[in-house]
Task: inverse folding
């Protein structure tokens, strides 16, 4: 993954802005991603929900960048 993208993701996860991730910050970020992907709110994420979540991206986007954009979009929801 691109180092710039990694820095952006890290910054979004670093809730207190101290330049380090605690286990709690890591878990909170991933819990929000999970909840955003669990569209039927049954407490599980299926492969179908995962694919549907990522397929909302621009279909012209290069395949090697789709995962990065999908992850960034999910992580962006942390701050909203």
Result:
């Amino acid at each position: 993954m691109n180092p710039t993208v990694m820095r952006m993701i890290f910054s979004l996860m670093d809730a207190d802005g101290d330049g380090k991730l605690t286990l709690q910050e890591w878990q909170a970020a991933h819990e929000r991603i999970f909840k955003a992907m669990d569209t039927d709110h049954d407490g599980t994420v299926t492969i179908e929900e995962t694919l549907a979540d990522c397929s909302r991206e621009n279909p012209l986007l290069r395949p090697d960048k789709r995962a990065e954009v999908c992850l960034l979009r999910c992580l962006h929801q942390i701050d909203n």
The two ends are 24 Å apart (CA to CA). The chain has one domain: 3-16+23-79. The chain is about 60% helix and 0% strand.
